[in-house]
Design brief:
single chain, mainly alpha, 5 helices, globular
Amino acid sequence: MVTRWWPTSPLFRSMARRLRRRPRSGSAKAGVFVPLDDGLQAEVAVVMAACPDLADEENDRSVSDPFVVALAKHTNGTVVTGEKPRKSPNGRRKIPDACAELHVPCLNWFDFLTEIG
């Protein structure tokens, strides 16, 4: 069962707060953030519907994982991550698991560096 999380859930509110805190144009993080447009929001909803356990609202570190996968799906990009797939089929999904389920290319850092030469 998928619970309704968009846009009233704590997960969405947490990410919305982060996205509002945009860096100034002269800062080191300028240009890192992507606008949260309607297409990207729709992709996040698809990711969360397919992988509801990807984001752990209790663990602040994984709340952006659905957005990472959705952005790659939305832009036909590739996710590069240091995460490894879950060890147990009953464990919480990780980024590589969600990418595999949604047919989004996903590389670990070694494979990424090998690919770019």
